[in-house]
């Protein structure tokens, strides 16, 4: 509920209705199945320092949320802008008329990455909210991630879809989309 109130206030203050902004909600996670949700940023930071919370996927996929710049977020009091990087997949609040998720990426893999890439290609500004946060709770692995991990054909199909998506980005956005191809080849 607190996130909703803060996000709503940010949507108004940052003029989300009339600008191309993607408001990033920093993501954290816990390994505990029961957790008292922090009622303030200060409480969250304390839990982070004690090891009750961690930055989201810090131990398996740091690239996905690294551009959020958690070190800066710790002391930020005003929204700050970050740049797109390869494999960036933050949780965002966007206008209703933003590009939709690419329907090729259902199940596990690349749905948020492709969406953020599309937002970047359309020149959305990525703005981190300094007092908002979400916490991912542990749960059993999904059917799709289990398939991804255990089935080579699933991974081959996902790779093919990624390449197809990147080609479509190049056709649609031209020269500006080259950075996505270069970033992918370097990651």
From TrEMBL:
<dbReference type="GO" id="GO:0035269">
    <property type="term" value="P:protein O-linked glycosylation via mannose"/>
</dbReference>
<dbReference type="GO" id="GO:0015020">
    <property type="term" value="F:glucuronosyltransferase activity"/>
</dbReference>
<keyword id="KW-1133">Transmembrane helix</keyword>
<dbReference type="GO" id="GO:0016020">
    <property type="term" value="C:membrane"/>
</dbReference>
<dbReference type="InterPro" id="IPR051292">
    <property type="entry name" value="Xyl/GlcA_transferase"/>
</dbReference>
<keyword id="KW-0325">Glycoprotein</keyword>
<dbReference type="GO" id="GO:0042285">
    <property type="term" value="F:xylosyltransferase activity"/>
</dbReference>
<dbReference type="Pfam" id="PF13896">
    <property type="entry name" value="Glyco_transf_49"/>
</dbReference>
<dbReference type="GO" id="GO:0005794">
    <property type="term" value="C:Golgi apparatus"/>
</dbReference>
<keyword id="KW-0812">Transmembrane</keyword>
<protein>
    <submittedName>
        <fullName>LARG1 glucuronyltransferase</fullName>
    </submittedName>
</protein>
<keyword id="KW-0472">Membrane</keyword>
<keyword id="KW-0735">Signal-anchor</keyword>
<keyword id="KW-0808">Transferase</keyword>
